[in-house]
Amino acid sequence: MSKSILALCRRPPYGDALAREGLEAVLAAAAMEQAPVLLFMHDGVFQLLKDQNAKSIEQKSVRRNLEALSIFGIDKLYVCQHSLEKRNLNCGQLRLPGIAIELIADPGRFIAAFDSVLSF
Amino acid sequence: MSKSILALCRRPPYGDALAREGLEAVLAAAAMEQAPVLLFMHDGVFQLLKDQNAKSIEQKSVRRNLEALSIFGIDKLYVCQHSLEKRNLNCGQLRLPGIAIELIADPGRFIAAFDSVLSF
Amino acid sequence: MTLHIVSKSPGYSNALMDCADSFVEGDILLLIEDGVYALSSLPENIPVQAVHYLKADVNARGIVVTMEYQGIDDTRWVELCCQQNPVVSWFK
Amino acid sequence: MTLHIVSKSPGYSNALMDCADSFVEGDILLLIEDGVYALSSLPENIPVQAVHYLKADVNARGIVVTMEYQGIDDTRWVELCCQQNPVVSWFK
Amino acid sequence: MKFTLVIFSAPHSAEGAASALRFARALLASGHNLYRVFFYGDGVHNASALEAPPQDESHIVAGWQALQQQHQLDLVVCIAAAQRRGLLSASEAERLGKPAANLAAGFELAGLGQLVDAVVYSDRLVTFGD
Amino acid sequence: MKFTLVIFSAPHSAEGAASALRFARALLASGHNLYRVFFYGDGVHNASALEAPPQDESHIVAGWQALQQQHQLDLVVCIAAAQRRGLLSASEAERLGKPAANLAAGFELAGLGQLVDAVVYSDRLVTFGD
Prior knowledge:
The complex is a heterohexamer, with two copies of chain A, two copies of chain C and two copies of chain E. By secondary structure, chain A is of the alpha/beta class. Chain A has four helices and five strands. Chain A has helices at about 20-30, 60-70, 80-85, 105-110; strands at about 5-10, 35-40, 75-80, 100-105, 115-120. The mean pLDDT of chain A is about 95. Chain E is of the alpha/beta class. In chain E, helix 1 (about 15-30) runs parallel beside helix 2 (about 60-70). The longest helix of chain E is centred in the N-terminal third of the chain and has 14 residues, at about 15-30. The interface of E and F includes residues 57, 83, 87 and 93 of E.
């Protein structure tokens, strides 16, 4: 059975557990060959920022989880363009080794195309 | 020892536990003759709305806690005027038996006058 | 088309405005829990007939609904989930 | 004067705008946790020299601070709490 | 239709826990199938055997247990989220050297694979947020 | 100065739990007095004896216990908030007929009077939100 699954990642990385636990669910799915598509929206785009040093607040960086995506064959992430612009960010600040970033201008149509959406 | 204590009530009543547990703390303080002053701001003003029927979602009404305030000698509540106006509400919709409502136009100066502030 | 479920108040959360960014024609909006506080100030791009709310949550809070939005019960909520897909929750 | 502590991001919460409603001259603002995401878009009524943030939270998140705000450590945070009163936390 | 619910809300902390239970009752009453309920994040506290709310407040843990008995529901608690939050079965408590267990009857601990499986095999996925 | 901290955040769920622990360490290191730490709302989970985070994640419960031993801190957990959320001492578990207890050593359950007392007798009150 094949289903298209979207993981909607909307939370910034360290203030609560949702970003981290969302990525853990994504990795579990990818390991079972049910890799979801990832769309980063709103403050979720902050998960991708380079140069995170979470040791300063005694946490682990979520970049480690993101970098693991490529091991499981996820080589592209989607990012809401409007969310990025609203936060004065550009793609160069989000780069991940081995993973392409595609900007989405119309998240509504993008989301509607999936069979299931996991919100994190 | 006498201290001026402010309870800052900013949460609407049923979506999470903060409004209810805040009022429980206020009642405990009042019972110990350390009655705090209550200031309702932002969505906290929704705690005061009349005609709440929380049974429909299997909860207890927070109006019961509010009505108990007068038993402990709290006969006045403060409400942020701007928060009320922004939500198109008026004092008539908030009336509580035996308790007066005073509108506060400058919450910043009001808050600064207290020794301690409990945020709920 | 998508069923959007919003459970937070616009008085403290951006969840509803975030949802509105992703609302397209044919989608349905359901306001639950603190989301029903949005009934007095919905975003302009969401048509009146698309807006639904849980009556139980409105009654609990003592809110008066003045517009022609659809008040529904839990059974109708289940039906909406069957009728639309995907179901997207906007919380926090 | 008051020390205001804001711990939520303006990207999902109204906490900072709510705090700004109650900010008066002489008050200090401290941004902690997700509150540091506000450093790029602070409300106009809060003067630059009143704004402080926890360096640990900024470093954790990979944020670059371009304005002349005060980055502080936990020891200085304790000092600010001694210097100002009351201490008001704006969360949720 | 086959539904799966994902629950992030803890009872008595966020209304989502109560909404999810009401929704589950309604969908079962309408003749639909509840393939699985997956408790994740703070939602793991729905499976606490030690919760003791005041008599006049609703008891959500007991609500799930009653529904489970009646419909043989699959109530799965994410084991990693549960360990972080202090929710352990007897065997987990023993394995981790902890002094007690507090997983309520009717719930089981399992990995995220159970969430993935549920997404794949359900017609509808509904998330109850925190 | 005499400080009291009120904590609404659960460890591993909201960063406020970790911020509060760091703040407590800093104020004690600066020679101030920590009159009481009051755990309220979801903050009661800071006192869970059953928490088992992964080895490489910080263990906040253990952090409070170490600080308590070193400085004889008064770590008080609101008993009403704890009952609702499944956090019980051995005597509470027995009284309520529950099968186990999970209050960590170094913490004690008490009523809201302990919060009121702390507000009255402290110079500074700092709240850590959820």
